Amino acid sequence: MKKITKILIIASSLAMIAAFFTPIWMIDLEAPQYPEGLGMQIWINKITGDLNTINGLNHYIGMKKIEPDSIKELTIMPYILAFLIAMGVVTGIAGKKKLLGIFVVIFLIAGIAGGVDFYMWEYDYGHDLDPTAAIIVPGMSYQPPLIGSKQLLNFVAHSYPDTGGWIVIGAGILAVLLYFYESKFNKKIPAKESVK
Amino acid sequence: MFQINKTDLQFKEKSNMKFNVKNFSKQVMSQIASSSILPPITAGLILAITFSVILLAGCGKKEGTTTLNMSEDAANKVYVPPGQYDEFYSFISGGFSGQMAVYGLPSGRLFRVIPVFSVDPEKGWGYTEETKPMLMTSHGFIPWDDSHHSELSMTDGVPNGKWIFLNGNNTPRLARIDLKTFRTAEILEIPNSAGNHSSPFTTENSEYVVCGTRFSIPMKELDVPIDSYREKFNGTVSFVKINPESGNMNVEFQIMTPPFDYDLSHAGKGPSHDWFFFSCYNTEEAFTLLEVNASQKDKDFIMAVNWKKAEQYLKEGKAKDVASEYYHNVYDESKHSASSEVLKTVKMLDPKDCPDMIYYIPCPKSPHGADVDPSGEYIVGGGKLATVIPVFSFSKMLKAIETKQFDGDVAGIPVIKYEAALHGEVQKPGLGPLHTEFDDKGFAYTSMFVSSEVVKWNIKTLEVVDRAASFYSVGHIMIPGGDTKKPWGKYLVVMNKITKDRFLPTGPELTQSAQLYDISGEKMKLLLDFPTIGEPHYAQACPADLIMKNSVKIFKLDENKHPDAIKSVNDARVERRGNEVHVYIGMVRSHFTPDNIEGVKVGDKVFFHVTNMEQDWDIPHGFAVKGNNTAEMLIMPGETQTITWEPKVATVYPFYCTDFCSALHQEMQGYIRVQPAGSSGEIKFSLGVKK
Question: Helix crossing, B2-15 with B21-34: angle to 10°?
Fold first, then answer.
């Protein structure tokens, strides 16, 4: 591995430490009655924001309460992230292309697994509704989008990565790019010119 | 003389008319001027026009003047588009309503009536167990008082947006309103006082708020003949110290004064920082038919008090402890409850023991306003019955004291020679000068009650530069920051005493009338009429950003220290203690926990301790039980309030939320069953039990 690859892998892995201190995902809700905004931030180990208010509103449609204490992902995710950071640093220090490949694969699996898990979590909240709820709209479910915006009754739900999430995504993309760089272009192009 | 003035005024306004009348009248005038029509005809024409204008004014139909002043320009200046904010908060006293109202300027829109000295059903003020102590006095619970003047707390002579003070006039009290919550935080009764009128004016850093007596009363011996007024009656001025952090108030000292009527006051500023100025009338010491007997002397007084000197005498132990019972009521925001403390003594300074502390300056005639200009050098007296506006110079006053230019004394208090302290007089200002505010360009604005106008004059040269009619009989006026070191001289609010035909009629009892003028240019321009509550006596205003950023949105449930609060619906319960039943209810959209209660008996006293568990902005809940003689309640998010109920008939009573809270507000209801006295039913409570 080139020196620049090593530095970038170590640097981007260390940058992911920021995801311990910033939210990784945000769900914002927009409604006429909430000019001040309403939303929640999903962190690596907690959920913050207007959770009480959102839970209060959700009870009309029979949604389960979002209780961070009962979400097991919030206890597991810090370890997964810590492992990714550690592995990235080790990969950079070792400088083995093969290790980089393994890192990329694990990173991608973690990312996809996270996405699938998040989708299933959202699906469960959006579909597992109390049949005695005050408001039942036939055929209506309230699953927020995985990423993007969607109208749910009087709310528009926006779901996007937050600061920490963007850093992790950036680190993942960089790892993939660096792998390709190492395996293909690097053979032909001198290292000096490859620095962007 | 005044009639002609007024007619001139009407005339001027008429010529400002927007539509063709302007051109038409111009043409007519020029034709008259250029033609060789005989002078008698001209005179006749002018007379006829004048007469018709007087007639127009006299018959009370003011359509002419109103429409003349209205133009698209004025409309634009007061128009605040939907969803946008006003530039200023204004706090206008509620007068005989005992409250204070908050309006936006320039729109004149009413935002909130803050309950202070009177019960307020809309907010539960004085009805809930938590707020009742706020209206306690040494005379017992007083449901309705008369509030007069508001004054914002200050730092360096400029409003700091923390608190606003309001005086209770009838049963003398002083209130502090917290501008984070727009609620009354503290009410202090003022002992040895009656008619707390010259209040609640504050020093430059709100070190003190003053309270002066409009009525003198017997103090040492209480039961005395009224005609012993001169010998047995006294006035007082009280200096209430304000804790700069908490805002808490205490009567630091009082000064015993001769039995005059102390009307209004203002603190000095800058060079005059150490001084306070009080206007006083009835130096005749009349106790009957004051309208005649207190109007005999050519000059009354402005009383100058050196409060720094008074502090020094207090330190030196010159003050005597005087036994007097008075209430101090504080609303604890963390407990959402008020408590009363009964105080028993007050420190009293007698001017006889305290030389150089007080001086009288003669002031014509029955002065109302005692207003200090932004520089702190000029003190303006507003002699209601005077034909001039006297302007005193602080530096000349000091010099007069130094060189002992006195005209004798009153009860040992030196009277400074009028001319020695006088900067000059504003000549022919109008009739009935009452109160003066200031802009930031060296001009003063004085209200003229009798001639119903505001007069703008130059403080240095004392020349009248403009006058504007008010509708009708203006009392106090207000410029944002107009009694501070730094006026925002953009608008002038005029608070009128008479409304008559200004708005759609509402029977004999009319709304009060305030008017907004643009004073940014050379001439005052009437922009807007807006109705106000009570009869506003005085007002304050400051830029909105000084206050809005600190406005509390909700009370935090975690920080609710009310002893009867519940933090979780799991704590909702009903408890019997002898014949008291305590119901701890939690409210969340859109149900009560619990909403079915049984086991109450006739003869029980039920306490509903209701906590609004919402933590969302602008989701108050109401609480009402059928047949409850005490009241209803309105409870803010995170707050706990209590009402009592003594049902007399055994049956099932419904209760419900009175503040529309959600789409299922109408479903937010419950039942409480009351059984006959002595029946065996146990306390039961539940929510959502399914069959």
Answer: 110
Are B144 and B98 in contact by the 8 Å Cβ rule? The answer is: yes
Residues of B in contact with A36 (CB under 8 A): 617
Omega before B590 cis (within 30°)?
A: yes
ipTM over 0.85 threshold: no
Domains annotated for chain B, with CATH where assigned, are 2-69 (no CATH), 78-91+121-548 (2.130.10.10), 557-686 (2.60.40.420)
Does residue B68 carry a pLDDT above 50?
no
For A104-151, the pLDDT digits (tens) are: 999 999 999 999 999 999 999 999 999 988 888 888 889 999 999 999
CB of A179 closer than 8 Å to CB of A34: no
Binary contact (A52, B615; C-beta < 8 A):
yes
CB contact under 8 A, A60 and B614: no
Distances (CA, A) of B456 to B347, B453, B477, B615: 42, 10, 12, 50
- A56/B589 CB distance under 8 A: yes
Distance between A30 CA and the closest CA of chain B, angstroms: 15
pLDDT of residue A185: 63
What is the fold, at CATH topology level, of the domain defined by A3-190? Butyryl-CoA Dehydrogenase, subunit A; domain 3 (1.20.140)
- Is the per-residue pLDDT at A82 higher than 90? yes
Put simply, the chain B residues between 574 and 633 with a CB less than 8 A from any chain A CB are 588-590, 614-617
Residues of B in contact with A52 (CB under 8 A): 615-616
Phi and psi torsions of B554, nearest 5°: -140, 165
Q: Which two tokens stand for residue B288?
A: 């009957």
- Report the relative pairing of strands B652-656 and B669-675 from DSSP bridges: antiparallel
More confident residue, B58 or B80: B80
Buried/exposed B537-550: b ≥16 CB within 10 Å, e otherwise: bbbbbbbbebbeee
Residue (of B429, B337, B347) closest to B390 by Cα position: B429
Residue A134's nearest CA partner among A150, A153, A121, A119 is: A153
Please provide the average confidence, as pLDDT, over all residues in chain A.
90
Q: What percent of chain A has pLDDT over 90?
A: 70
Q: Do A135 and B663 touch (CB under 8 A)?
A: yes
Two tokens, residue A147: 């990423």
Specify which residues B386 forms β-bridges with.
none
Return residues 654-683 of B near A (CB < 8 Å): 662-664, 667
Nearest CA in chain B to A59: B589
- Look up residue A144 and give its DSSP letter: P
Query: What pLDDT was estimated at residue B70?
Result: 57
For residue A133, give the chain B residue with the closest CA: B664
Chain B residue closest in CA terms to A50: B616
SS3 state of residue B138: coil
Is there a contact between A56 and B614 if contact means CB atoms under 8 Å apart? yes
Which residues of A make CB contacts under 8 Å with B?
A: 36, 50, 52-53, 56, 60, 134-135
Closest Cα partner for B304 from B280, B281, B275?
B275
A-chain CB neighbours of B664 within 8 Å are 60, 134
Full-model pTM: 0.86
Q: Most B CBs within 10 Å: which of A55, A59, A153, as the mutation test of the B interface?
A: A59
Q: Where are the domains positioned within chain A?
A: 3-190
- Say what the pLDDT of residue B71 is: 67
% of chain B surpassing 90 pLDDT: 86
Task: Convert the pLDDT of each residue in B321-336 to its tens digit.
Answer: 999 999 999 999 999 9
User: Which of A36, A50, A134 has its CB closest to that of B664?
Assistant: A134
Is 90 exceeded by the pLDDT of residue B28? no
Q: Which two tokens stand for residue B160?
A: 């700091």
Q: Residue B432, by phi and psi: left (phi above 0), alpha (psi -120 to 50) or beta?
A: left
Nearest by CB to B616, from A56, A60, A134: name it. A56
